[in-house]
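Archive entry. Fields below.
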Amino acid sequence: MHNEHSDTHFQTRIDNGEHIEAKDYMPENYRKHLIRQMSQHAHSEVIGMQPEGNWITRAPSLRAKQILLAKIQDEGGHGLYLYSAAETLGVSRVEFIQQLQSGKAKYSSIFNYPALNWADVGAIGWLVDGAAIVNQVSLQRTSYGPYSRAMVRICKEESFHQRQGYEIMAKMMKGTKDQQAMAQDAMNRWWWPALMMFGPHDTDSPHSSDAVKWKIKRETNDELRQKFIDKTIPQAELIGLTVPDDKIKLDEKTGHYKIGPINWDEFYRVIAGNGPCNKQRLDHHIKFHEEGSWVRDAAVAYKQKHSTKELQTV
Amino acid sequence: MTKQEAIYKYALRLGDDALILGHRLSELCSRGPILEEDLALTNISLDLIGRTQALFIYAASIEGKGKTEDDLAYRRSENNYGNHLITEQPNGDFAHTIARQLFISSFEYLFYSELEKSKDETLSAIAKKTNKEIKYHMQHASDWTIRLGDGTNESHKRMQNAINDLWMFTGELFEMDEIDAQLLPEGISVDLIPLKTNWNNYIKTVLTEATLKVPEDGYMQTGSRKGIHTENLGHILSEMQYLQRAYPDAKW
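PREDICTED_STRUCTURE:
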């Protein structure tokens, strides 16, 4: 019989397709990998509220305003589930937030790009959430139970987000010349960063091999990116948007699109902190977190006072 | 004024209240003191924009000039807006946001409970739906007022300041103008005068539990129902209406 606390037993469970639960034995590096990945995922949801939030007060119709509000609320809600799921690994939300604010933990680099015109709200839904879904659908089968279950819930809402983003783009492409120009401008700015969301090529990805062995990651960066490309290019063509890559070619044999080279220098530069909004996004998070500290203190003080009072009356 | 015109204006300004307060709360997205509260505030905003839409669709149909709810929201200027002054006051610190919510939601609860009985079926139906949401908004604001009032010294001070600062905008909530008066005998509008006592009692109960003082009634600012606003509304509209005004031929 295997020792239940051995790495061999753990790997056998993984290979049998079992879910690992919070109290089960797991190798320390598996735990570390999950903490990094899940907190990064949670932070991305929360920081991702900022670029779209930038347009809530300027949403051009009551319907658009409601959809955008509901969508951003969903993202915040995903942040909450994911923080809770990640807390099962023994790190608290307070610590996660400290790690985010100190720069120790990352969030998806895509949110370091600005949302400059209304079509950006469409492009974020369609391309950014579209890319995220490809990844998240795959993560529904991830080996860690709490993460997998969070992903199942999240995927249901993300597909609605992607549709609403595409609907904005389609509407604008049917609209005035100004609207078409806004949509194309947004497409030009979000296409490449969206492709970078899947991370470096498999040959250059530092985290992939263990993650695949442990079935945290079920498909590789390049496989997922290709799915996104194949799904998205026909959608762009359908509404008359030009994909900003003159090297795109459909490979008739494989049915896959080939794209031009991705600018990895830009990817690493933005990850390292030098993107258009890195400083702005973190500063914003820190500013409102700090401004809220007296509110959190008050809530704690009130609770303490009243639990003491209750004890005294018992 | 014909009855139709009066109902149009009545529905429109109720929509304005919801739209402007909803807009103010939507400004708080990603700015809450804690993620849960960020979601709660934008959720209230979402309820309010939904209420606006229902009221504007009704107003537009009564006006009968083929306008949409978006024409009413995005193509009117400040002096045609009839929202109460308190709805357009800045979010300020969290205590100000909560004080504004407390005053408005408790007024709205009393108001919409009466409007549920309106002989105008559409207004009555909207009131029934919206009042379910308002109960939650009122609970949320009351809970926070109590927590902040009876929390730390700092939160107590901030909450009392916010209550004091916004008090002067609560008087006009209970003012009756010619539209209210015209629709009252028809059983359509709400008589605002009797609501005042219940509102005062509710506020007093919450503030007392929160260890806060009820301000003395002093100067009360008014004018919103006549289209005379504070300087805040112009800024809200210039931001909110930007795309519709800059690209008047576009559909969104």
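CURATOR_NOTE: Chain B touches chain A through 49 residues (CB under 8 Å).
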